[in-house]
Write a structure and sequence with these properties.
This protein has one domain. It is an all-alpha fold and 178 residues long.
Length: 178
């Protein structure tokens, strides 16, 4: 495994561990990790595979729920969003990507809660869907803050520290070999 893939997987692996650390509801780095994987993984199959694998393994340990398909679908869409950000990475696109990822997650997972019943008694009407979204607004704040915050931290860590370090090592090894 080359150093770049190792560094990228390490950042995402921290996400795996974070699912077991006590945290406020919906305040996790999983969406940020999906965006990050989509933005930085050159092998796009890994960008999709790594965050979903983290979710599958941790959900088996933490517990399975009725909206699992909707959560996984939203994470795959968030990774896709990250692939678009990869074409023009800057702090603005990272911030907007974090907001977009949080909104995608909110819309898809709460639609899933509504359509599956998800423990709530909202009728399967347009009004019931709107009521479900309204009930979920308090959780959106944590999703938004954590996604934008963690994605920004991952972006800055990679761009300011990890990537320059790896490029320096690559240049040093070329000089030694050459």
């Amino acid at each position: 495994m080359n150093h770049k893939i190792f560094a990228l997987v390490l950042i995402v692996f921290i996400t795996f561990i974070s699912r077991f650390v006590p945290h406020p509801p919906n305040f996790t780095p999983i969406l940020a990790a999906g965006l990050f994987a989509g933005t930085y993984f050159n092998k796009k199959y890994l960008a999709y595979l790594v965050p979903i694998s983290i979710m599958i393994v941790t959900d088996i340990i933490i517990g399975i729920h009725a909206t699992l398909v909707w959560v996984y679908l939203s994470i795959l869409l968030v990774v896709l969003l990250g692939t678009f950000i990869a074409k023009k990475k800057n702090f603005l696109t990272i911030g907007l990507g974090g907001i977009g990822g949080a909104v995608l997650f909110f819309l898809f997972t709460n639609f899933g809660v509504w359509i599956t019943g998800g423990g709530f008694s909202h009728p399967l009407t347009f009004g019931g869907l709107i009521a479900c979204y309204i009930d979920a607004i308090p959780f959106f704040k944590n999703t938004l803050i954590s996604t934008v915050g963690y994605y920004s931290i991952m972006y800055l860590s990679y761009e300011k520290y990890i990537n320059p370090y790896l490029e320096n090592r690559y240049e040093t090894s070329k000089k030694l070999a050459g």
